[in-house]
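Tutorial handout. Part one gives the primary structure; part two gives the three-dimensional structure as tokens.
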Amino acid sequence: MRSKKDKHSGYIIAYTTAEKRADAETMAGAIIDEGLAACVNIVPGLTSLYKWNGKKVRTKEFLLIIKTHRRALAMLEKKLKALSPYELPEFISIDIVYGSDDYLQWIYKAVKPR
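Part two.
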């Protein structure tokens, strides 16, 4: 069990995107099934503007907000890269600085990378 000192450490929110709902659902389902995240929110209606190959691109996308633990991060990145249809899929993560003890404990128990 985690010590009181580090009870809020190691928790991560990771982000990725998908252009199609079906791709977002596939990615979310796979990472939940493989124990790489406790929860994935799929947010529709995202508009992304970015430069790609020297051109400005505007794309409608789905944002995946992934609640996980640091121990699954490398495997999560590998899985999302394998599933994403993008040539260069977005994969970024940020530390959860603080969260409800009960919610963080739920994440900890749910994330069991296989």
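Part three, for discussion. The helical segments are 21-33, 73-83, 101-110. Residues 103 and 109 are 10 Å apart (CA to CA).
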